[in-house]
Amino acid sequence: MTIKINELDRNIIRKRSKIDLLKLKILQHKKESGARNNALKKEKDNISKNYQELKEKMNRFREEEDRRLKELTNNSRNAVEKLKEYLELGERILKTGELCRRL
Question: For the whole model, what pTM was predicted?
């Protein structure tokens, strides 16, 4: 009986040492995983921040180009109207000159 008890005691001690070793490994894995997770979270946050900055920059660029296009369109329309006015004035001058010549 004492031999069996001694064997069981040795088995228990062996199993406890294995359990302690496994607990230590689990703790190390938790630390490593935590460190990796933190690094990945920081990297993800940086990528998200850069993405938002680029998106904002792109939106500002689009707004600026939209403003420039509106300004260009307005200037073009104003130029066409001004040229039409000059055309009408020129036609009136020619008509008046023709009438004066006839008289």
Answer: 0.56
